[in-house]
Amino acid sequence: xxxxxxxxxxxxxxxxxxxxxxxxxxxxxxxxxxxxxxxxxxxxxxxxxxxxxxxxxxxxxxxxxxxxxxxxxxxxxxxxxxxxxxxxxxxxxxxxxxxxxxxx
Length: 104
Hints:
Blueprint: E1 5-10, H1 20-33, E2 37-40, E3 47-52, E4 71-75, E5 78-79, E6 82-83, H2 89-100
Helix pairs in contact: 1-2
């Protein structure tokens, strides 16, 4: 069975309103528990979590248009346009991952 690759793509971190490293670690641990490989700052993946520390959304700025790869777009305390309390970001994002990647 093929192992799926999840990429966590960071912004530059110039104006973070959330703890991106803590959130990335929560996502990484969950993905590994689900049997997925975790890579960073790559667009060559089966799922991309764009992780921007503020609302500018810089992590997604250079992604290719028209890509069919599923994404989760995090902009500060917003996930795919829905506001989420910072302490609930990890569980909220991790709840979305199984909907986009099958478990191994």
